[in-house]
Amino acid sequence: MSQEGAGVDLKTSLGYLLKEASSALRAAMEAVLRPLGMTVTHYSCLELLAQRPGLSNSELARGAFVTRQSMNVLLQALERDGYVTRPAEAPVGKVLPTRLTPRGRHSLEQATVAVRSVELRMLAGLTESEQSDALRILRSMVRSLRDANDGG
Amino acid sequence: MSQEGAGVDLKTSLGYLLKEASSALRAAMEAVLRPLGMTVTHYSCLELLAQRPGLSNSELARGAFVTRQSMNVLLQALERDGYVTRPAEAPVGKVLPTRLTPRGRHSLEQATVAVRSVELRMLAGLTESEQSDALRILRSMVRSLRDANDGG
DNA sequence: TGACTCATGTCAGTAGTCTGACATAGCTTG
DNA sequence: CAAGCTATGTCAGACTACTGACATGAGTCA
User: Fold this and answer.
1) Number of alpha carbons in the 13 Å side-chain half-sphere of residue A20
2) Residue ranges covered by each domain of chain B
3) Fewer CB near the terminus (10 Å): N or C of chain A?
4) What dotted CATH number matches A12-123?
């Protein structure tokens, strides 16, 4: 391991550290979701539907940070396996409101317990004030990045 | 857009916000790297090699947060296209030290400018003190997650 | 009404990453 | 020395997510 050689300025780059933290979080979530046969996007989709029943495919995609095409593939699988339902025809426009089935809700319950334990572990070393600092700082970073990405 | 309906507790979840920030950063980086024909992992690999010449495939993989198999595929392409070089035989053990070629260095220079502008944009709304807070907090989160992931 | 713009759902093909597996080199331990 | 453990490089197959493209429905405006 020649990694302890010299902490170059990668370790002081907030972008690099953000990627490292996100990667660690994703790995931890995958580790606890795998025994349940779920991926992170799979779980995100169910969690979004539990908190906001009737979300459309595109809205779910934005909420899970994937394209609507990717979410569409996932939704078709979830629908086929009986975790969610969508009306055959759109009540209005082309938007198909999606809802959890009892089976989906049950599956989500197990996943939520697992994911919550990961989040608690992640927050273990932080004070309340540090947690709210982190929320505020991350929101600012998202806003700055999104402004220039969407608008130009 | 029914998204402004109610900020449920997803918006207060540090894990969710971390994913959102990371997703926004990744999208912004992809947007500026695409015109250069580079992916984020591609750039990460070159940047790591510039800062630490002679890193092995496995070390690059850890530094770019992908598996060594994925990095191996990338390195073979980079080597084929003349961005990096690796000795045909390992000087010691099986480890193949990788180095940038002049072409690789030149390619990295353009990418670095683009990526630095993204990072500056991301930090635009933050004070110096907030930036160092963010570094400290993210490091703590990484440590907490990694301890339980590697060691258990 | 008709043209234009935007968002949505969906199909198809591509690219990046992952898991699984194997052989090999170095280190440790009995 | 032999056995076992760990780390590495590599190949192959599978999966996930992405880009590109198309048709359709809603809203805007002349």
Assistant:
1) 21
2) 16-124
3) C
4) 1.10.10.10
Taking the C-alpha atoms of residue B70 and residue B61, their distance in angstroms, rounded to an integer, is 8
Q: Which DSSP string do the residues of B38-94 spell out, in sequence order?
A: --HHHHHHHHHHHHSTT--HHHHHHHHTS-HHHHHHHHHHHHHTTSEE--SS-SBTT
CA angle A21, A24, A25 (to 5 degrees): 85
Number of CB pairs, chain A paired with chain B, less than 8 A apart: 177
Residue type, A79: E
B90 CA to C25 C1' in angstroms comes to 10
CB contact under 8 Å between A134 and B22, yes or no, is: no
Q: Is the ipTM of this complex over 0.85?
A: yes
Instruction: Quickly state the pLDDT bin for A3 (edges 50, 70, 90).
Output: very low
Task: Name the token pair of A136.
Answer: 């505020």
In the three-class reduction of DSSP (H, G, I as helix; E, B as strand; rest coil), residue B124 is classed as coil
| DSSP label of A41 | H
Q: Rounded mean pLDDT of B78-95?
A: 91
Please say if the pLDDT value at position B4 is more than 70.
no
